[in-house]
């Protein structure tokens, strides 16, 4: 029997990683956020002459926030607009300008924004690009791990022993779980290893060592950065870099580096644009691995995840139809809240107010409060 655990942001809240509402508040206010000449937005620092860039980002973000709020009012849906919603719309604007994933349906929004003198004469394209980076930088810096509390993950060792936990899939950008695994000396492999460079390099999972936990961070991590290397000169190599160095001067840390290609971490932010993210680069590799590991799994434990990602929900629904799947154990403190905030796929195929899939069990507790015995009981019944 093989067990896989899927974790969302809810498992990190006890470690004081800020939630989506807290990050949204910072994005909308821009309080104490500045921009440096290196093109990065920083919480707590910035050049005064570049503060106008912050004001422009906030101005555009607030316009989009109001449009999104009006949309949900129109369809009579109770929804608190968050930074992921805003980021998704900004990406559609930016991708349309770049003919990357153009969406003619947002033409009226672009026209409306360009009619505003703040975004006229070609300024919208530049401000949208800056606003995307502004959100990415705030997310990255707000969830940088600072508090060394991770006791909620002690159950992982028990799951490894009792249920043959082989795979941990995380949708989180933070490094709380990474830190736990390292500090508890739990053997795991996340696709990174040391090569000829000072920091761990992304190598993928083709040569993953056997008999240890596979750790897949599907949405990236705040310590993953694209770096250019020398001899031979290449760009877009991905390394894990510590958060106590100045990323833009990474070439001072290793003479084989020439610098970062972007300066912000490799993370997937937004809503439906994550589906497109699963189709390229490191995220495509990880998503394919996720699908493969699910097919091998008999038990699936899900916690801290609100079932709001269409790409993830599709695979979880598919897994329930595999002959090899036995039980999906969902750990969530409030069934009604889970159903209310989930996407339609969850309510149709997994659980709703009246029915639950025969292979699904719900433990109504916070992840940090659940006991191994409760999970084993649900698996065996």
Task: Please give a handful of descriptors for the protein shown.
381 residues, seven-stranded parallel sheet, 2 domains, three-stranded antiparallel sheet, alpha/beta, Rossmann fold
Fourth-tier CATH superfamily name of the largest domain: TPP-binding domain
The radius of gyration is: 21 Å
Strand order of the largest sheet: 5-8-4-1-12-13-14
Largest sheet: 7 strands, parallel
Helix content range of the residues, please?
25-40%
**Which strand-content bin applies to the residues?**
15-25%
Here the CATH topology of the largest domain equals Rossmann fold
- In total, how many beta strands? 14
How many domains comprise the coordinates? 2
From the 3D coordinates, which CATH architecture of the largest domain would you assign?
Answer: 3-Layer(aba) Sandwich
Mean pLDDT: 92
Count up the helices.
13
Distance between the termini: 16 Å
**SSE pattern:** EHEEHHHHHEHEEEEEEEHHEHEHHEH
Provide the structure class: alpha/beta
Low-confidence stretches: none
CATH class of the largest domain: Alpha Beta
CA-based shape: globular
Describe the structure in your own words:
The chain is of the alpha/beta class and 381 residues long. The chain folds into 2 domains: 203 residues, Rossmann fold (3-Layer(aba) Sandwich); 123 residues, no CATH class. It is 39% helix and 15% strand. It contains 13 helices and 14 strands. It has a 7-stranded parallel beta sheet, sandwiched between helices. Strands 10-9-11 form a 3-stranded antiparallel beta sheet, with no helix packed on it. A two-stranded antiparallel sheet has the order 2-3. Helix 2 crosses helix 5 and helix 3 packs antiparallel against helix 5. The model has no long low-confidence stretch (mean pLDDT 92).
